[in-house]
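dumping this here so i dont lose it again. seq + smiles for nicotinamide-adenine-dinucleotide
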Amino acid sequence: MKVTIVGAGAVGASCAEYVAIKDFASEVVLLDIKEGVAEGKAMDLMQTATLNSFDTQITGTTNDYSKTAGSDVAVITSGIPRKPGMTREELIGINAGIVKEVSSNLIKHSPNVTLIVVSNPMDTMTYLVHKTTGLPKNKIIGMGGALDSARFKFRLSEALECPPSDVNGMVIGGHSDTGMVPLTRLATRNSIPVSAFLSEDRLNQVSEDTKVGGATLTKLLGTSAWYAPGAAVSALVQAIACNQKKMFPCSAMLEGEYGLNDICIGVPAIIGKDGLEKIVEIELDDAESKKIKESAEGVSKTNALLEL
Ligand SMILES: NC(=O)c1ccc[n+]([C@@H]2O[C@H](COP(=O)([O-])OP(=O)(O)OC[C@H]3O[C@@H](n4cnc5c(N)ncnc54)[C@H](O)[C@@H]3O)[C@@H](O)[C@H]2O)c1
């Protein structure tokens, strides 16, 4: 399994580190446009190989796509992150051009690649990749829901005063402060609905904290977060590499599912060797259906800014 990560910045490097530590890929190529950065991070990571006991070969390159040839999976983390006070949508002007160019270069050298889109605004960048690359729809996955769900589970564990591993839950909808739909109704602690332990007010607080999870970190760090994003991407890469058929909320191109068409937005999906193998349609209650429609309207507005 060869994995390429374009954008050896904070999220890209963190993803490379988690992929290497889990030791399921033979090769990771980091590519960046900034001279020497990908080579330097690859070398630094390789010097952790004996300490962290992995055999994955990590190499770096400055914009030489021939080094990415034959990649099975490629992660797109290239582009600018938000600064405190910015929305993800404000990044579209710069990131759309980068994502379009990067995805086209990747496919030229790896025609059978599965792309994982991370750059923000992620749902719109995923839509852009669908519209401009001609890759089959199962080969384009937008990563947002895996991260948002991990943040949701962490917030629930805080409220429940229990370890995060006791908690299960999902966030669907757009990957934005206003678009996320945390499914509190379906979240559980060891199969018991969380509503058995937490008041409606506390659950609403958990939802609100989850939705601004990224913004909260951006304010603290001065730039957007990278550990949980990197770990979330690496979990998707692993699900593909190891054909795990795991369910993650991912940004998928919808053709009628959830009553939506011609839009990429977070829905539960099965991830395995063929990429996004299946969209899982779950029954939403009226309030959840209304929220996902509103979320889709927000994503569509951002999509309309694309010059396709
Ligand atoms: N989807 C998510 O859940 C999620 C989570 C966190 C961050 N993000 C997004 O991921 C992106 C990366 O975030 P980051 O914190 O790693 O940023 P960063 O600035 O640390 O890294 C971005 C890297 O991309 C490189 N780059 C820019 N243009 C390039 C090009 N044309 N080709 C190759 N490399 C190029 C830059 O040189 C830089 O090293 C941002 O858009 C951010 O908003 C998404």
